[in-house]
Amino acid sequence: MLAMATFVGFAVLVTALIHLYLWKRLVRDTTRPGRWRKAGGVAALLLALLVPATMVGTRNGSYWLAWPGYLWLALMFYLLVLLLVLEVPVAVAKLVLRRRERAATGAVGEPAVVPAGGGGRADTATTGHVAEPAAIGPSATSPVALAEPPAAAVEAESAGSAEPPVGGDSGPPAAGDRPDHDPSRRLLLARGAAIFAGLTAAGVTGYGVRTAIGPPRLDRVRIPLAKLPRGMDGLRIATVSDIHLGPLRGRAHTERIVAMINRLDADLVAVVGDLVDGSVAELGAAAEPLRDLRSRYGSFFVTGNHEYYSGVEEWVREVDRLGLRVLQNERQEIRARGGVLDLAGVNDVTAAGTGLAAPADYAAALGDRDPSRPVVLLAHQPVAAQEAAKFGVDLQLSGHTHGGQMVPFNLLVKLQQPVVSGLGEVDGTKVYVTNGAGFWGPPVRVGAPPQVTLVELRAP
Predict the structure, then answer these.
(1) Taking 80 as the threshold, does the pLDDT of residue 168 lie above it?
(2) How many of the other CB atoms lie within 10 Å of CB of 458?
(3) Whole-model pTM?
(4) How many CB atoms lie within 10 A of CB 266?
(5) Which of 173, 306, 322, 423 has the fewest Cβ atoms within 10 Å of its own Cβ atom?
């Protein structure tokens, strides 16, 4: 309970900070004080509250929050990424403008200083040349004329040394008092960055929605296994994960995936976790089409982390009722074409410590087997390969990552999972990770289209 409260508190804090940053860049920096800035502040506050409301509401049946809430979550993410990327060029542009303004300020001429007793004054209003002393009396060189300056000069001198009147116009500001930037240019720059980020984020999000709700892409991959009998060469496993039935995906989504898999005429079907985001009571009808899956040697299922958020015991019974064999830390012999292959499955690593079902047990699933047989392990998370490799697993089929779902989020997934998408290797064990056929949270996929994979095993 404490861990959950800590996580929720951290998520709320991060959401608040992100919206504060977005308000500053999109509202405060782009508007002058007034009603538009106030309206933008209110909108930022409401959108910040929409995020936790969506997370909580969709878990409690308020599905009407899903589309606006999750779409804003995606748009928020891309606005944040784009504005952070723009920080550098915007800062450079501000620096250039500041230097130009300072250079322009420094180019303004200062009044020439007249040496004391020089007998003349600078003509700063026109030419800047020093005027010749005026001839006084009968001779310009008369000692008397030089001894007593004319009355006009005295008056001018006294006027120049007088204090300026309080509140009067003392002339243009000194260079040090002038702003180091042009406020109108700064405003224009902020608005340009905001418009670019907004339009780009909206375009990327729209593309991502179209990709996410479209049909899954069929990928075919050939994976050689050193121990695979020659007679089993070409054995095909239709692999799908992360269907994520829930607030935004229902029965039609399942029907489309089942029809797609059935057209492959596969030898085996592997559903590698995260089937649902809700209870059997809420989503049982949406999962019903799974009973129509066809394959030569059976259809199999392992739990993902989202099953543990959705009533895992009920879903294990329901999936078994629909005709899929649930591999809970166990394995099944697959005898085909004169050869034998071990197909094993482990519960998701999330099970540890939840008290729901059993935690992942690799020894139960992989121990005491014939080491001459090839073994294919179904495990929801790619990170399971770190334990599976200790048991000599030839191939692990996984999902969980969604291929990152929304670039550049895939870069963060790499910090947790050894393989994000496609075929990789962990300590000698080959790991294939499918992108998944659905989505979680935002109905958006960018750089990681939904996927169903036909894995073809090849003998050496």
Answers:
(1) no
(2) 13
(3) 0.80
(4) 23
(5) 173
